[in-house]
Amino acid sequence: MDINDTIKQQLSENPILLYMKGTPQAPQCGFSAKTVQALMACGQRFAYVNILDNDELREALKVYSNWPTYPQLYVNGELVGGCDIILEMHESGELQEVVDGAAEATEDSSGG
How many CB atoms lie within 10 A of CB 95? Predict the structure, then answer.
């Protein structure tokens, strides 16, 4: 499987997916830490990928997303944005709506 297939598979399997530096429990940069805090405040489960564990993925994702920096938040396979956008959305309440919508769609499709 090539790296773009890996990215597509990760996005299709995880309705809320954060590509970040480090992990939610131990972010490796301030931008990732702030993004995780905003996401966690929404109260929905989300998946993450530590891009520091895979150089090939880290570089390929920049091309795939046409977004040069991390973190990158995807909801339902679509790039939402990076730290600044996520924080703005969190402040306005829009982030809550987006992640709640993705979580509800997942529950509906899984029958739970």
Answer: 24
**CA distances to 17, 30, 65, 102, 112 from 78, in Å:** 10, 23, 9, 11, 23
Can you name the residues that pair with 50 across neighbouring β-strands? 20
pTM value? 0.94
Q: Tell me the sheet residues that pair with 73.
A: 18, 81
- β-pairing, 72-75 vs 16-20, is antiparallel
pLDDT in tens, 75-108: 999 999 999 999 999 999 999 999 999 988 877 7
Our separate counts of H helices and E strands in the chain read 5, 4
SS3 17: strand
Q: Which of 94, 59, 60, 63 is nearest to 80 (CA)?
A: 94
